[in-house]
Write a structure and sequence with these properties.
Elements: H1 2-10, H2 20-49, H3 54-86
Helix pairs in contact: 2-3
């Protein structure tokens, strides 16, 4: 870990500690996206429960995987934006 910090310092990357407001914003963003994930899971299960066609089940599973990946990407971007604001990057 120390080597990574040293390497980051050599490359000009400086880690700025998060403020309490930024920590709260990150927690709020994670909570929001956890709710979105739960909603997507519930919707997926309700669609699957009413479907018996294997091709349609596979299509629903693929759509669910895309939805989950999108939600995870959105969450990562939201947290990264908050962290960038902490380091003065202002995304």
């Amino acid at each position: 870990m120390e080597r990574l910090r040293k390497k980051d310092a050599e490359e000009g990357r400086v880690e700025t500690p998060l403020t309490d407001d930024q920590r709260a914003a990150i927690a709020e963003a994670r909570s929001l996206y956890a709710a979105k994930m739960a909603e997507a899971e519930i919707l997926h299960k309700s669609k699957v429960a009413g479907t018996f066609d294997p091709a349609q089940l596979e299509e629903l599973a693929e759509q669910h995987r895309r939805d989950v990946a999108r939600i995870q990407d959105d969450e990562a971007r939201a947290v990264a934006k908050i962290r960038a604001a902490a380091s003065g990057g202002g995304a």
